[in-house]
Design goal:
about 200 residues, alpha/beta, Adenoviral Proteinase, Chain
Length: about 200
Amino acid sequence: MRMKFSSPNNVRATSTDCLFDSKIRSIFDKFMKDVHAIDKQHSLALYPTGKMLWFESNWGEVDHVFIPVFMDKRAHWILANFNLSKWHLDVYNSSFKMIRDVAVLAAVEPLCYIILHLLRLSKVLKFTTPDSSLTCILCKDVPQQTNGGDCGIFVIKYAEYTYHMKIMDMPKKFDTHMAQYNMVVQLYKYAIEQPDLTLPRTS
């Protein structure tokens, strides 16, 4: 929410939901055999336009797209950052010792191919999208979790510090419980500060 409404250091960013990666993984094999498996009518094609989610921005107007990726076989969350200014995929893993690089690369491989296809379909960029896949960079010098259940909060903190251009200043150790509490407070604060914000109805 904060990423859409404010721009510290002139950084513009947006994010996807967790279903984005799930949808991509479910159709990846079909896509590699036939790119028409994902056409303009597919729900994935809406993400770059900013019209799929109430909190999302048009990808053609941002510098970063933060994508939460769930490694279901490992029950582990990682963060993929589509860096449009440098045109590659930065990947943050909070558990190098437990989750090997080869597994992380396999988890984000579908993104490297399908993201570019979605950009071509949506035509949100002012320049021609390259035909090759995105380069993937594993970000190594980042804080690591010590508790097996903290990967989710690390994904959010990676995105937050990257957004503020302070990823190298992220504390190597921090109170994850306090971070979760602060996040709830921040979400409430930003919702209050946006009088014209209409949240989606749930039933």
